[in-house]
Amino acid sequence: MVKIESRRKGRTTKSERKRLFEFQKKLTKYVGIGMFKITENGDYDNFPHRRYRIYSLAIVTLILFLFIALEVVELFRDASDFERLTFQMSLIPSQILNIIKTLSMMYYHKKITNLITILEKSATDIYVSSFHIIKTDKNCLFLSKLYTVILVMCVLYFATPSLQTIYSKNTYFYDNKTITSVLIKNRLPVSTYSPFKINDEFTFCIMLFYQMFTLIYQSFIVCTNDCFAASILMHISCQFITVQLMMKNIHRNAIYYLRSKRLEKNSYEHTDRSGRMKLNYFDFDKTKFAFYVSNITDEKLLEECRFIINNRNTSFSEFSSDEISESMEIFLIDAVKLLEMTIECMKEFEYIFRHGFFGQIITSVIVICLSFYPLVGMKDADCIKLVGGSLMMMVFMPQLALVTWNCTNITIEAEKVATAAFCCPWYEANAKFRKTLTIAVSSAQRPQIIKACSGLIPLSNETFIDLVTRSYSAFAIVMSFKKQL
């Protein structure tokens, strides 16, 4: 006996779907971007706050550009000390990339809002598997929070020498008579040019607060961009999984749809199949097949549904082949519509983030090459800077791997759609259904690959491995030339 409840626990409702990207939306508010609210008419709400967010983001962007300018000035002032400035040289490209990503998200604000709205609405669609939606959202939330905590901890680690200096101020600022401004400046998280001399505790704390604010803010920018991109990619992959379930269970769903229509004619009046009785697509929970009927309040109708489900293994001879074919065609059209919508979402995502991903690839190559230098080239390296370079490489490599892994997962799940379409009993359907299925399979067989820089670089696991290996090869060549000189 299969237990049927009037409401399945864990099913995504209209109120729950708004929490699918809740944490990611909070991150956008923290960095000054925020998300639009779309009203029922399709208009964009929240325009009064738009101007305020633009002004706040412009001010913070100017502060970040000032911070980068001070780093560049310091880099040219001490260009001979290459070993000490290696960490700073790897930090500048990443900071510029963060600003470009933020401005890009602000420019494509409406497109991102439309994309998220489509994914949120599909979470409450009658045919979307609730299990995959909830599991995907939990993975996105866990990944976003973990990524945020790791980046903030890295920033706090870079501030360890500065906090140690403030804690031991009596012996560092006052007892040491040979103290210089350069010596104190080297205790800051990042070596930057200072327009005034840092020779006391007050000026040191001002520079420390300024650097910590910019570094923590930039870490939130990284989390916002990467977590948003990863969450959207994971939900797009979930949509392809849903299409597979719809294709595999077309015949069984058509039978249950016809039985539900018979119930509607005999017992109660229902407008259509998306009215009072809502049928979820089926999920395979381990080895037990579970079918759920939701939003059924009438006990008599619920008992009739229990009888139908518990006798689901009976023969289907009660319906003619034409009726089954027509019903299967309805579900096939719904699956094709969801497939086309998912492909459009993927193309829209590729268009929005194409420049950011290209900059991410270039920056990752630069950071990996410069991060290898403290590990190999330095002889008397500072322990903080040495570990800092390792952390930079450990942050940027997962940052790129997060995108390439999700893009590869989308490609794999999209390829399975055509196989799932062949699994349906098309041989029992009429010629019209077979023709429609042929068109759907030909569309599903096209490889769905997300590319960066206007389709030049495919984002996949192979691309990530090639970037890491070639970056290390370029670093090894540079080190060999340096040893010869």
Automatic annotation (TrEMBL):
GO process annotations (BP): signal transduction
GO cellular component: plasma membrane
Top-level taxon of origin: Eukaryota
Keyword Cytoplasm: no
Cellular compartment(s): Cell membrane
Keywords, in A-Z order: Cell membrane, Membrane, Olfaction, Receptor, Sensory transduction, Transducer, Transmembrane, Transmembrane helix
Keyword Kinase on entry: no
GO MF term set: odorant binding; olfactory receptor activity
Family recorded in the similarity comment: Belongs to the insect chemoreceptor superfamily. Heteromeric odorant receptor channel (TC 1.A.69) family.
Name the UniProt record assigns to this protein: Odorant receptor
